[in-house]
C-alpha cells in the first residue's frame, strides 16, 4: 500500500503552529460532516488527524480554561 504525501501548500498538511507547550490548549477537530470533537491531548489529536484524515476538515486550537479561578 502506497501512502500519499501532502505538500506543505496543501490545506490538509498538518504543521505545528506554536512553540508553546501543547498541554495549555484544547483542540477542536471538525469533520467534513460538520460534527466536531474537543480533545485535550495533542498526541491524541495527532493520532486522530492521521487516522481519520479522509473525514477531517480542520483543527482549531482553543485556549484551555482554568476551573479553579478565585471568587471575589
Summed up:
It is built from one helix and three strands, in the order ββαβ. The protein is of the alpha+beta class.
Oligomeric state of the chains? single chain
Mean pLDDT: 82
**Rg from C-alpha positions?**
15 Å
Coarse structural class: alpha+beta
Largest sheet: 3 strands, antiparallel
Query: Helicity range of the residues?
Result: 10-25%
N→C terminal distance: 60 Å
**Number of alpha- plus pi-helical segments:** 1
The ordered string of helix (H) and strand (E) elements is EEHE
Strand content: 25-35%
Uncertain stretches of 5 or more adjacent residues: none
Task: Outline the structure in words.
It is a single chain. This protein has 72 residues and is an alpha+beta fold. Helix content is 14%, strand content 26%. Strand 1 and strand 2 (36-39) form a beta hairpin. The chain is globular.
Chart the SSEs and their pairings.
Layout: E1 25-31, E2 36-39, H1 42-51, E3 56-63
Antiparallel strand pairs: 1-2, 1-3
Features:
three-stranded antiparallel sheet; globular; alpha+beta; 3 strands; 72 residues; 1 helix
Amino acid at each position: 500500500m502506497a501512502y500519499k504525501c501532502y505538500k506543505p501548500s496543501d490545506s490538509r498538511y498538518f504543521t505545528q503552529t506554536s512553540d508553546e507547550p501543547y498541554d495549555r490548549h484544547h483542540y477542536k477537530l471538525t469533520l467534513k460532516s460538520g460534527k466536531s470533537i474537543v480533545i485535550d491531548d495533542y498526541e491524541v489529536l495527532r493520532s486522530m488527524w492521521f487516522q481519520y484524515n479522509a473525514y477531517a476538515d480542520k483543527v482549531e486550537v482553543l485556549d484551555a480554561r482554568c476551573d479553579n479561578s478565585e471568587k471575589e
